[in-house]
Design brief:
The chain has about 450 residues and is an alpha/beta fold. Helices cover about 35% and strands about 25% of the residues. The structure holds cytidine-5'-triphosphate.
Length: about 450
């Protein structure tokens, strides 16, 4: 019996796939199809799959062509599989010509002509074709980064950039050609909006977008008080559009795995979560003082608070906020520490744009602790550490684009599937807004020099 093996993602199964499977089968008597897992695809930079592994397996199975389906999970697995299944022929489409010649050492390698004119990439782009408008002011640097990340996501077109303050467009002009003077003009041309303007403007801008029936992805915090945040979520629901809070860390694979390890009790009961995020950056201060500059609590607070709320929940008994102000009137804090008290745990977050510290995350438990080195918010690595160092474990996961592109894919999937696919629950967004409200309502201890 001649055994043939072939591999692929098989997202949105199409005619090209079926033709390939038929010809692969015709090369022998028994066909094994290896379908890439979602994690493996992520490590190969394939982040746009529309269908989950289960759905892709079901689609290949339904063709009735494969005799056996296996999952491809790691680099180098092909050699293992060929040996394990005693494979005679390895085959893939001609788009891979030459790439798998090294397998000749183990079996015969055959490249089959690729079917012209059809691909999963094209099908995904056709299904999406979403027009996104960008809104920003001070944080041009980040907006620039987002423009590059949007380019990695299938079927998304950037319509233009609106800036209330008429920010210097110079660095964006190479990439974007449309800079409307009115926000409404951008809304009209877009299906969805990404907002990174100053948090003081969020409420008005989000509300206008939602009322115009546009989906919104907004850099956290969504609003500076709880009531407004709740109102915006209710409005989004009423208008049947997606409102998602943008905290890129929530989409990092390492961070997500860390949460799962903590939740599955690997470090025992969690007693303390301590997160620090700091950066020292020159800020542009105009005549309005620090009013339009992202302060420490807005720039870093949501990211630092995220693991606290995701691990310990939002029902804390007390949140004690202490800040060092550079411009008290405009609530510009160069450093803030928030101490949370829970029934059975404590947490602390330290955020700063004018003070430097070690940007690490530590989750302490009764059996061990999780240590994420600086900068923990964009890490691809963490450790579970125990009393006996020989029990320690290290975890590595690839992180592309600091998690931003995974977040954009989630946002777009939410829009398409009409089902929120956010890693951040509404309850957490509202609780983050509550902390902002306490800060802006002067419920802070002040550190004075
Ligand atoms: N294939 C083919 N003809 C096509 C598309 C794919 O013969 N028009 C083959 C590929 O060469 C591969 C298998 O089908 O052997 C699975 O390919 P996959 O990468 O899953 O499909 P694509 O449509 O190429 O996906 P993408 O656009 O995401 O790269």
């Amino acid at each position: 019996m001649i055994k043939v093996i072939t591999y692929g993602t098989y997202d949105l199964l199409h005619y090209g796939h079926i033709r390939l499977l038929e010809r692969a089968k015709a090369l022998g008597d028994y066909l094994i199809v290896g379908i890439t897992s979602d994690d493996y695809d992520k490590t190969r930079g394939k982040i746009n799959n529309q269908q989950s592994l289960i759905e892709r397996i079901a689609a290949v199975k339904a063709t009735g062509i494969a005799d056996e389906i296996i999952v491809e999970e790691y680099e180098g697995q092909k050699i293992d599989d060929i040996k394990k299944y005693d494979v005679d022929i390895f085959t893939v489409g001609s788009d891979w010509k030459g790439y798998f010649d090294y397998l000749n050492e183990y079996c015969k390698v055959v490249y089959l002509d690729r079917t012209e004119g059809v691909s999963s990439t094209e099908l995904r782009a056709k299904a999406r074709e979403l027009c996104i408008g960008l809104v920003g002011d001070e944080e041009i640097r980040i907006l620039n980064k987002y423009i590059d990340e949007f380019a990695c996501v299938n079927g998304v077109k950037i319509t233009g950039v609106f800036s209330e303050g008429g920010m210097a467009d110079d660095c964006l002009k190479e990439k974007i050609s449309y800079f409307p003077e009115k926000y409404e003009e951008l809304l009209e041309k877009s299906d969805a909006i990404y907002i990174i303007s100053h948090p003081q403007k969020h409420y008005v801008q989000i509300k206008a977008a939602l009322l115009a029936g546009k989906h919104v992805l907004v850099e956290s915090p969504i609003a500076l008080n709880k009531a407004e945040c709740k109102e915006l979520f209710e409005l989004a629901e009423k208008e049947h559009v997606v409102l998602m809070e943008a905290i890129k860390t929530a989409y990092s694979t390492a961070y997500n795995r860390l949460l799962l390890i903590v939740k599955s009790g690997k470090i025992g009961k969690v007693v303390s979560v301590d997160a620090t995020c700091t950066s020292i950056r020159d800020v542009n201060v105009d005549a309005a003082g620090y009013r339009n500059v992202w302060n420490s609590i807005c720039a870093w607070g949501p990211t630092a608070i995220l693991p606290v709320f995701q691990i310990l929940g939002c029902n804390y008994k007390k949140a004690d906020i202490s800040s060092l102000f550079l411009d008290r009137e405009n609530r510009y804090d160069s450093f803030t520490k928030v101490d949370f008290l829970y029934d059975n745990a404590v947490a602390s977050v330290k955020v700063a744009r004018g003070v430097k510290s070690e940007g690490e995350l530590i989750v302490s438990g009764t059996k061990g602790y999780i240590y994420v080195p600086a900068p923990w918010w964009k890490t691809d690595y963490f450790e579970a550490r125990y009393e006996n160092p020989s029990d320690n474990r290290r975890f590595f996961y690839q992180l592309d684009g600091e998690g931003i592109r995974y977040m954009l894919v989630s946002f777009i999937k939410s829009i398409q599937n009409k089902k929120i696919n956010s890693e951040i629950s509404k309850e957490i967004s509202v609780s983050i807004s509550q902390i902002m409200q306490d800060f802006y309502n002067n419920k802070t201890n002040e550190i004075r020099w």
